[in-house]
Amino acid sequence: MAPHRKKPVVIVTRKLPDAIETRMMELFDAKLNLDDHKLGPAELIEAMKVADVLVPTVTDRIDAGILSQSGPQLKLIASFGTGVDHIDLKTARQRGITVTNTPGVLTEDTADMTMALILAVPRRLAEGERLVRGGNWHGWSPTGMLGHRIWGKRLGIIGMGRIGTAVARRARGFGLAVHYHNRRRVHPDTETELDATYWESLDQMLARVDIVSINCPHTPATYHLLSARRLKMLRPHAFVVNTSRGEVIDENALARMLVAGELAGAGLDVFENEPAINPKLMKLDNVVLLPHMGSATIEGRMDMGEKVIINIKTFVDGHSPPDRVLEAMF
Ligand code: 8YV
After folding, report:
1. How would residue 2 be classed by pLDDT, with cut points 50, 70 and 90?
2. Domains 9-104+297-329 and 107-289 share a fold
3. I want to staple 267 with a disulfide (CB 3.0 to 4.6 A). Which of 57, 122, 241, 327 is the partner?
4. Which of 48, 106, 40, 36 is nearest to 76 (CA)?
5. 292 catalytically annotated
């Protein structure tokens, strides 16, 4: 029989799918959050003091202040999610804490939601639904609920990683011409497959596209990448879609321009100060607002949970976990 080894204390900050929690209870000394409340700062610090492994989500801000109070036993932060902008990676590294995430398993779901917004905003889907539900639809008319055709328009993808590429594949099927801006040009075979046009200059791309989709991570380099100055480069008939992170767009500037009619509409699944929503956006009919649900499928959440478990298991068994996050990646 293998020598008895103490199970690692794994603190999970939010409620995860039952099957994932059950497996975690079998494998680890897991502490679960049964009522799914968002941990307050004091609770988070308490967790950092006792956990060997912390499993946070996007709703936990693991900044330098919080990290500085972690106990010496905390060696792994196995985040449940792909984005890691809620974790101060540099401070974690300095404290000898490994960070992992769950890349790859959210790609198709997030790309689907992006495509849904690319369709929903120009075709006024949410507005039409509100009309029917509000009892204000009085029958078909030739000029009723006219939106804009997306077939034949130009889509500008900002961030041609896994999700951006998956959006591009879908967009091709809807007759959109794919344009993109990325830190690096993608492989020529991918460009050929997607018939994609690369723009080294984001400014130049913005001035030419009809729909913009944000698919890059939020990092210090992408904070307010769509600044007030850049938003002004878009033409007034352009639509903006964001399923990445609210911080990539200057949300105030976006709201101001939408109110002024300087942009045609926006589809937003993410916001700068979630769950707070800019009141200006709330009043607009040409804006579709979603509650950060781009990756919210039961299949996706299970895959994410399994990735978290594999990362923890590999780490506690003394190996480098498969989804180790390095600062240079972001
Ligand atoms: C996740 C996300 O649901 O993975 C991400 O980066 O934005 C979401 O889709 C969330 O982060 C879970 O922590």
Report:
1. low
2. yes
3. 241
4. 48
5. yes
Any idea which architecture 9-104+297-329 has in CATH? Answer: 3-Layer(aba) Sandwich (3.40)
In three-state secondary structure terms, 195 is coil
Give pLDDT tens digits for 166-187.
999 999 999 999 999 999 999 9
Q: Which atom of ligand 1 is nearest to the CA of 101?
A: 4
How much distance in Å is there from the Cα of 83 to the middle of ligand 1?
Answer: 6
pTM (predicted TM-score): 0.96
245 catalytic residue (yes or no): yes
Q: Which of 112, 295, 311 to mutate to test the pocket of ligand 1 (most atoms within 8 A of CB)?
A: 295
State the burial class of residue 53 (Cβ atoms within 10 Å of its Cβ: 0-12, 13-18, 19+): buried
The pLDDT tens digits of the residues spanning 231-289 come to 999 999 999 999 999 999 999 999 999 999 999 999 999 999 999 999 999 999 999 99
Domain 107-289, architecture per CATH: 3-Layer(aba) Sandwich (3.40)
Q: Which residues line ligand 1 (CB under 6 A)?
A: 57-58, 80-83, 106, 294-295
Give the position, in ligand 1's atom list, of the atom nearest the Cα of 110: 9
Q: What are the boundaries of each domain within the chain?
A: 9-104+297-329, 107-289
Ligand 1 centre from 295 Cα, in Å? 7
Which residues, listed in sequence order, are joined to residue 288 by a DSSP beta bridge? 267
Structure-token match 């994410």, residue found: 304
Q: Pick the catalytic residue: 170, 230, 245, 301?
A: 245
